Structure prediction request, 114 residues.
Amino acid sequence: LFNGKMTVAELQQIGMILPNAQIGTLGRAYMIEAIRRETSAYPSRNELLQIVREETSQSVVGKVAGLLMVDEDRVGVLESIGNIIGDGTVGTQARVNAMQVLLGISEATIDLKE
Prediction:
């Protein structure tokens, strides 16, 4: 959809505003889709995890899972997701989102092995 239509600088600008984009919107999902192939445009892991905690759209959470999968510190990502799941102070939606990310990462890992 966006392949070759934006410069790296434009994609990086999208990545910078993504964490503050309106929660649960199609616009936020399209922002993630736009930067998906340009890892230099990704928000930090902490910013992506904050999106997992606050998001209300399963589509956005699924796309965030894809961004977290390319993090070289896979153990750190999994620990962070596990912390969200086990955190009784966050809402149910945040824990469900974290489980969705964990499922997405595990399914992608299985697909890579096959």
Notes: The CA atoms of residues 33 and 63 lie 7 Å apart. The radius of gyration is 14 Å.
